[in-house]
Amino acid sequence: MGGPLPPRADNKLPQTGLERDSDEKSFGRDDEKGAFETTADGEEPNEEERRTLRHVSDNLNMSIFLIAFVELCERFTYYGVSGLFQNYIQRPYDGSEGRGALGLGHQSATALSTFFQFFCYVTPIFGAIVADQYLGKYLAILIFCGVYICGLLILTLTSIPAALENGAGLGGFATAVVIIGIGTGGIKSNVAPLIADQYKRRTMAVSTTKKGERVILDPNVTIQRIYMVFYLCINIGCLALLATPYMELYIGFWSAYLLGTCMFVIGVVVLLAGKKLYIVNPPQGSIITDAFKVIWIMMKNRNMDAPKPSVSGRSDLHWDDKFVDEVKRALVACQVFTFYPIYWVVYGQFSNNFISQAGQMAGHGIPNDLMQNFDPIAIIVFVPILDRLVYPLLRKLHINFPPINRITVGFWVASLAMVYAAILQHYIYSAGPCYEQPLCEASEVDGVAYGNNIHIAIQAPAYMLIGISEIFASVTGLEYAYTKAPPSMKSFVQSMYLLTNAFGSAIGLALVSVATDPKVLWMYAGLAVSSFIAGCLVWIIFHKYNRTEEEMNALS
């Protein structure tokens, strides 16, 4: 790779896509090989260079990290609060802190927590329309932050002991989760595209490292890194579950909810403080309405090119041929997302049934909802390994690992998580004193059921496998939704991706009837098979898009 390359044969003028800010004169830092020099930067690579030079990430500016921190605060709140819902709903309030609140039982707890997940991933459609068509992403995020805070305050106030003793718990919870669901949906559909909007390069450029190696600054690699950083921050926020289960246990649910509220307010302050640094694209008016009209014309004429003015000959259309091509590309992304609901059913297990499974085991002083932390810990460990070591090595060896392949691997790793959960459930049922009826009277000490004689720590690999699967499936989904969306519809296509999570939650609701002992073992086994088959179908049906990845991304 270090030897001389043939001279350029295309005689192209330097081309860098969108202009960079004056304070970004250098193209940043290649974290794999040292800093770039500005000499000869900016030339678009020819075909030989694209094939032979190493593709690397461009610099990430400060606004990217600020938005990532805002998302960290929001996810700290979301997981720190919702991670307690299973115990809050399932266990009764007996006057002691941390034992429970609503007392609705296992199935109702799973149903309500799954409904919350469902609602949180339906509302992004509303948030996307508000942003893309009316307010823009930044202002929409601020407004939905205000909604979110209102929901958090209601949840906190109705979870204090006096409120629970006077029957305010259930009504307050129902009201709060609806308001929080609207707030989080509006934020999620906009913050993921907003962070990628902070990076402005849209075409590849040749650069040179300090070691003299010529490399290609690749926007696709940079977007991939942005979402790896984004997801890393999300999961640092998830570590709220290191603190909130103990606060629940020793102080009360209200204290954990209050901590989440305070952290969220910090995120909003950072969002406001960095306003001058953000790149904010204005709303595009009737763009989403036009997109649906384009899709309708495609369906009516059974021809993907029918909406193009050059094909239809109509002069009254609000769009040009390029817009139709962009909508077609967005539809490709939506097709790829078809199988994601299966993945999200598997993912959803870690925040409901896995918590109940942990509660069936000997805790040895470890709260059953503390085990969730192994999911973000796995992500925090493996994201840097993949981003800094594995992916750069693959690119250096010219081994392609395109999005569809990464998504497929994510589905397969999720399948392994369910295999492990099913085997673990078998061992729980094989252990005394309650066997297939965990938490029976035989396991009680001073009126508290302590579960079967199998150590809670054995559950950790199930969470870790789900975390690793997220790096491949979830991160790549965010990346795919952004890169395949038209510039004017980033939030809307992101909301379509998030909607698949809602469908997964709906399937999870349908499975509530089998989330009981001993049927839950077979539910885990069925999800393992489903996730593996779904991963196979993703590759079989969509791997053809790997060949046109650069072409589709170039439409931006």
Automatic annotation (TrEMBL):
<dbReference type="InterPro" id="IPR036259">
    <property type="entry name" value="MFS_trans_sf"/>
</dbReference>
<dbReference type="GO" id="GO:0071916">
    <property type="term" value="F:dipeptide transmembrane transporter activity"/>
</dbReference>
<dbReference type="GO" id="GO:0005886">
    <property type="term" value="C:plasma membrane"/>
</dbReference>
<protein>
    <submittedName>
        <fullName>PTR2-domain-containing protein</fullName>
    </submittedName>
</protein>
<feature type="compositionally biased region" description="Basic and acidic residues">
    <location>
        <begin position="18"/>
        <end position="35"/>
    </location>
</feature>
<keyword id="KW-1133">Transmembrane helix</keyword>
<feature type="transmembrane region" description="Helical">
    <location>
        <begin position="521"/>
        <end position="542"/>
    </location>
</feature>
<feature type="transmembrane region" description="Helical">
    <location>
        <begin position="406"/>
        <end position="429"/>
    </location>
</feature>
<feature type="transmembrane region" description="Helical">
    <location>
        <begin position="138"/>
        <end position="164"/>
    </location>
</feature>
<feature type="transmembrane region" description="Helical">
    <location>
        <begin position="330"/>
        <end position="347"/>
    </location>
</feature>
<keyword id="KW-0813">Transport</keyword>
<feature type="transmembrane region" description="Helical">
    <location>
        <begin position="495"/>
        <end position="515"/>
    </location>
</feature>
<feature type="transmembrane region" description="Helical">
    <location>
        <begin position="226"/>
        <end position="247"/>
    </location>
</feature>
<feature type="transmembrane region" description="Helical">
    <location>
        <begin position="377"/>
        <end position="394"/>
    </location>
</feature>
<feature type="transmembrane region" description="Helical">
    <location>
        <begin position="170"/>
        <end position="195"/>
    </location>
</feature>
<feature type="region of interest" description="Disordered">
    <location>
        <begin position="1"/>
        <end position="50"/>
    </location>
</feature>
<feature type="transmembrane region" description="Helical">
    <location>
        <begin position="462"/>
        <end position="483"/>
    </location>
</feature>
<feature type="transmembrane region" description="Helical">
    <location>
        <begin position="253"/>
        <end position="274"/>
    </location>
</feature>
<keyword id="KW-0812">Transmembrane</keyword>
<dbReference type="InterPro" id="IPR000109">
    <property type="entry name" value="POT_fam"/>
</dbReference>
<dbReference type="Pfam" id="PF00854">
    <property type="entry name" value="PTR2"/>
</dbReference>
<feature type="transmembrane region" description="Helical">
    <location>
        <begin position="109"/>
        <end position="131"/>
    </location>
</feature>
<comment type="similarity">
    <text>Belongs to the major facilitator superfamily. Proton-dependent oligopeptide transporter (POT/PTR) (TC 2.A.17) family.</text>
</comment>
<keyword id="KW-0472">Membrane</keyword>
